[in-house]
Amino acid sequence: MIDRRFFVTSALAGLALPRMGLAQTAPGKVPRPEVAFRVPEMNPAVADLVAQVDPARLRADVDALAGFGTRWSEGPGYGAVEDWMAASFAEAGPGGAISRQPVTLPAGMVRNNVIWGDPLDGREVILLGAHLDTTSENPAVSAPGANDNGSGIAAMLEALRILSGQAFTRQIVAVGFTGEEQGLIGSARCAAVATQQRWPVELMVNLDMLGYRPSNPAAPLFIEYDQGNATPANNAAAGAYGQMAVALAGQHTSLATAQTDIWDSDYMPFEAAGVPCIGLYDGGASGPPYHTSGDVPELMDFGRLEQATRLLVAIMATAAELT
Prior knowledge:
This protein is α/β, with parallel strands linked by helices. Helix content is 34%, strand content 15%.
């Protein structure tokens, strides 16, 4: 991922959201009719879920991930990282079958995306993704990746712990991607499989760095949404979901937010496949620890990670339609 140097702002008032996704773009599928969706008022049931975010669990997961020393996907120890991801998904709660999706890296070795949930259970899918791998100036030796992207994985796990026991109209599916740092290899593979198998993905939510400690404590969390890119037809839906996220941030967090396009992370292959995509990003690609062996938990702002995770829970509960 690279830094987002420009952002745009938009009105927050209720925006009509056309339902779109991979199910519409697959060959032979009939497009679903447009269904209006509007930014909701404060939902007390969602607020109750948001309040369950536990900063101690977030810190424990980041510490565990950084504790591998490196999560470089070409390294010989990466199998243990995948095992940790699968075990952590299994402990997140009921409703999530665990599977592994083989990915061949450019160097020839096979690694795996680790998946929580069944994208073919018959419901529309809200797909949550974060990359598990890391890099640095010498990734074979040290790439702790606390913020990039231990923070995203920790937020994903915490959201699943809170949401997995709830009833939703849509299915939540989560993926820990491999090979992001080598060119979005794992997410490209996942998007290809999703297209082939016709996963009915309504929205893809990407998490890539959520706990950077900025020099200015008032610095915003970036809410990213598709504003063009490979498939213009999904722009309206992505924009409406992005504005939903902005409104939810105001309801459930203390963070300022800014809005920007999606760029150079694991949502890009899904956007190219026609899926509306949004993401959360903390600006950390402009910070000194980025892609270095100095990306350690001690340099993170866990208060900001907690607030970003609160927003994630609100987004997922709202988009998946809590019943």
